[in-house]
From TrEMBL:
Biological source species: Arsenicibacter rosenii
Transmembrane stretches, start-end: 7-26, 92-114, 126-159, 179-201, 208-225, 301-322, 343-361, 367-384
Keyword Transmembrane helix on entry: yes
Name of this chain's protein: Glycosyltransferase RgtA/B/C/D-like domain-containing protein
Lineage per the UniProt record: Bacteria, Pseudomonadati, Bacteroidota, Cytophagia, Cytophagales
UniProt-listed InterPro entries: DUF6044
Amino acid sequence: MIRSEKTYFISALALLGLYFLPYLLLGEDAYVTIHDNLDSDFLYLHILKISRTAFAMDPMAVVPNMMNGIPRAALRSGLNLEVVLFYWLPSYTAYVVNLVLIRLTGFIGMWLLLRRYLLTEPSWALIRIGIAVCFAIVPGYVVHGISVSGQPLLLYAFLNIANDRQTQKDWLIIGLFPFYSFLVWAGLFIVIALGGLCLYLMWTQRRFHVRLLIATGLLAFGYGISEWQMIYSFAAKLYVSHRTEYDYARLLPKTFVHCWGKSVQLFSDIQYHCGSYSTRWIRGTLVVAAIYAFLHKDGKALRRLAACLLLIIGICLFSGFYRFPAIWPGKGNLLQSFQFDRFYFLLPAIWLWLFALALRIIQQPRWFLYVLVLGQAGIMIDANHEWRVNLRKLAGRPTPGFISYRSFYATEQFAQIRDYIRQPQPAYRVASIGLNPAVSLYNGFYALDSYQNNYLLSYKHAFRNVIAAELAKAPRIRTYYDAYACRCYTYVAELGMKEAAFSCGKNSRSQVKHLVLNTAAFRALGGRYLLSGIPIQNTAINHLKLVRVFNDRTSYWRIYLYDVL
């Protein structure tokens, strides 16, 4: 590395340090994304720790805290680095350490890839560092490990092997990648993509590349080892999953216009789990690069741009129109229960690789390239919603409506509830109304309601008996539950099913006036208490007794504790 690039590299690390700073200074008072994070994937890692099942390797093991026990194989493997981090560190600390590791992996991986295979000359040092910083702060979900951020590093190792430049480090990267990513979200699609690249390279190089095939096999084998419990439980059919009742035909519009709209949105902004950011700046850069290539009669450059862009368009169209082939075999088929449309997890890295390729084609003037990189960096900063909320809070200008980690999980308040009940938490079950069930689960309560991507079908049916009358009053919620039910919540028709229905804070004026629960079915499941974020007016007909209201200054919630008689 030349001296100037070392300076750029260190400066980039310092900038990334500023990115991490709000999380470090605010601590648990920082805002952390709730949707599909604190309410689910983050929570699962915490539950594995407090339930002492993180490293349970028995395929028949269960996690007892949720839904009267869900299969251990349904959650992240104990061989995954994230599980290890959350087991040994306090959960918020583990989240921040995970954040740092993932962002640094993205930065170093993209820098190495560009330095060796696209922007190779020393004169490109600042630009490749700038693009690497942009990729490092792609606002993907941290709880997916390096499923997205690790892709450039993985491709770097893969291309080293393809070009006979491999070292032991490259094999180590490929071998360890599955143990810090997740097969279901991205791993399968990465293996398929690299398998396709392997065949393409062998075809273009006109040789049978044994090492390349071994590298692809090693990656697939690594996922087989890291996720062996999940794979074995699926192959051996150890339990019947609620996913076997997925019914896209009832859940999703089946029109060309809607599917096209989803494809366009994916092309414009990417999907939020893997890292949503606007691609408009890159698309504008592509137009400029195409004009440059056309004027210079560079057909090879045009073909490379077109090939990369067509790959992106193909992924977007496949994902947008995936529901059509998925519904043809009927409800609960493998195409629905596994969701093979997640090739969009490849898009954040492909778009920035395409951006670098476009800059390579434009080449001059160099100041113009710097402006383009700065513009893309600005888009990335704007896309990092969580970070911007925390930065404003750190500056003394908090954004209303964004709940901090501490306020959301309200550990002091729920400790008061636990102490008031004065029974061992495994001895009774709770459910939540007006607040997310993740809160009680985080605090060690055994909850009948939960957000789970994979649990027993029999439990879905059993819990439905509890809320059947409420589902009957709300056709939209009924369809959602019967055809999906990952959010197996205590739905209340008059509250609806939007996230606000499960986020009724202490300042909420909502009340539940017409609740109809099957409390006999609730008690049959072991239920004893309802934790409600808002008052329930018709307690008598539901056999409920308000025993106490809990307030805490650090909590977002006011909790009404009801005994189910």
